[in-house]
Automatic annotation (TrEMBL):
Protein name, entry field: Methionyl-tRNA formyltransferase
Residue intervals of the Formyl transferase C-terminal domain: 205-306
InterPro entries membership: Formyl_trans_C, Formyl_transf_N, Formyl_transf_N_sf, Formyl_transferase-like_C_sf
First-tier enzyme category under EC: transferase
Upper taxonomic lineage: Bacteria, Bacillati, Actinomycetota, Actinomycetes, Kitasatosporales
Molecular function terms, GO-annotated: methionyl-tRNA formyltransferase activity
Signal peptide: none
Catalytic activity, EC: 2.1.2.9
Ranges for domain Formyl transferase N-terminal: 1-169
Keywords, comma-separated and alphabetical: Transferase
SUPFAM superfamilies to which the protein is assigned, alphabetical: FMT C-terminal domain-like (SSF50486), Formyltransferase (SSF53328)
Protein species of origin: Streptomyces flavalbus
C-alpha cells in the first residue's frame, strides 16, 4: 500500500521507521516544526530527518488546514494515512481521504487516557498496565474504532521514563501488524466503549506542583511519573522552587500539618502528607533526592540540614 505518515517526536520517528522497514511505500511525511514546549523538547527524534535520509518528501505544518497540504495529499494518492503524535486535529477531508482512512497510533489503552501525556497521567493514577492502541481516526480525538492494542504491566517502582521505553517498543510491531490486517482485508474494527472513556489535557508547569494534602502513596507515584527527562514534580522551600527527584512512602506514620519537614527516616527526610495527617495514622513521603533552582542535585539528608519548616505549593 501507499502510505502517508503524519507524526512528530520519537513516537512519529518509530512509526516512520516501521513503515520504511515494511513492504509498504511511504509517499509523503507531514510533521511539525521544532517546538520550545518543555514536553516537546524531549523524546525529540526527528521525523523530518529520517524521511529526508530516505528520500521521502516532507511537509512541515503546525496545522493541516491549508490548500497546499490537501493538494499534496491528493497527489500522493495514499491507500492509508498513518498518524502518531500529531499534535492538532485533522479535518475529515484529510483523515477520510484515503480508501482505508487514517490509522492513528495512540500511547494508551483506549478508551482510557485519550488526549495528552497518557503515560504520566496513568502512572499518577496507579494504573496496573499501560499500552498502545491502533484505531481509525474519526471526528473525535482518539475516539475511533480500535483495530489492535498491546499492553505492558506497570511495576511498583516504574517511572514514566521506564514506561516510555517499554511502550515505544510496541509501536513498530503494532504498525506493521495493523497494516498487514488492513492490506489483507482481515481488519476487524471494534467501537470504543464510551462509558470507559477518559480524556486528559496537555500538561503545563502547574500540573507538576505538589499538593501535600495528597496521600503519600499518591505523591510517590506523582514523583515517579515526572522522572528525568520530564519536568520534575516540585514544591517550594523558603520561597524557592525545589524539585523532588526521588521519594518513597514512609515506613512510619506521622501526624501534623501537610508539608511539614519532620524527621529523617532511612536514606531520606519525611514530609508530612495527606489531608488527614492530623490523625497521626498516615505515612509521610520520604524525600530522597532533590534538585535546586540552579540545577544542583542533592541527597535530601544533605539539603535539609535541620528539621522543621514547611514545603509549600507557592513561594
Amino acid at each position: 500500500m501507499r502510505v502517508v505518515m503524519f507524526g512528530y517526536q520519537t513516537w512519529g520517528h518509530r512509526t516512520l521507521r516501521a513503515l520504511l522497514d515494511s513492504e509498504h511505500e511511504v509517499a509523503l511525511v507531514v510533521t511539525h516544526p521544532k517546538s520550545d514546549h518543555a514536553y516537546e523538547r524531549i523524546w525529540s527524534d526527528s521525523v523530518a530527518g529520517l524521511a529526508e535520509e530516505h528520500g521521502v518528501p516532507v511537509l512541515l505544518r503546525d496545522r493541516p488546514d491549508d490548500d497546499g497540504l490537501l493538494r499534496a495529499l491528493k497527489e500522493a494518492a495514499p491507500d492509508v494515512i498513518v498518524a502518531n503524535n500529531w499534535r492538532t486535529w485533522l479535518p475529515p477531508e484529510v483523515y477520510d481521504l484515503p480508501p482505508h482512512g487514517t490509522l492513528n497510533i495512540h500511547d494508551s489503552l483506549l478508551p482510557s487516557y485519550a488526549g495528552f501525556s497518557p503515560l504520566i497521567w496513568a502512572l499518577i493514577n496507579g494504573e496496573r498496565q499501560v499500552g498502545v492502541t491502533a484505531h481509525r481516526m474519526d471526528s473525535g480525538l482518539d475516539t475511533g474504532d480500535i483495530l489492535l492494542q498491546r499492553a505492558v504491566p506497570v511495576g511498583a517502582e516504574d517511572t514514566a521514563t521506564d514506561l516510555f521505553h517499554r511502550t515505544v517498543e510496541l509501536i513498530g510491531p503494532l504498525v506493521t501488524d495493523s497494516l498487514d490486517l488492513i492490506a489483507s482485508g482481515r481488519a476487524v474494527w471494534t467501537p470504543q466503549d464510551r462509558s470507559r472513556a477518559s480524556f486528559f489535557h496537555k500538561r503545563s508547569v502547574a500540573d507538576s506542583r505538589i499538593d501535600w494534602t495528597w496521600p503519600a502513596e499518591d505523591l510517590e507515584r506523582f514523583v515517579r511519573a515526572q522522572s528525568d527527562p520530564y519536568p520534575n514534580a516540585f514544591t517550594h522551600h523558603r520561597g524557592k522552587r525545589l524539585r523532588i527527584v526521588s521519594a518513597a512512602v514512609s515506613a512510619g506514620r506521622y501526624g501534623g500539618t501537610p508539608g511539614r519537614i519532620f524527621i529523617r527516616e532511612g536514606d531520606g527526610v519525611v514530609i508530612v502528607a495527606g489531608a488527614g495527617a492530623r490523625s497521626g495514622r498516615l505515612p509521610g513521603l520520604v524525600v530522597r533526592r532533590v534538585r535546586t533552582e540552579d540545577g544542583a542535585e542533592l541527597a535530601a539528608t544533605d539539603y535539609f540540614r535541620a528539621m522543621g519548616g514547611y514545603l509549600t505549593d507557592r513561594p
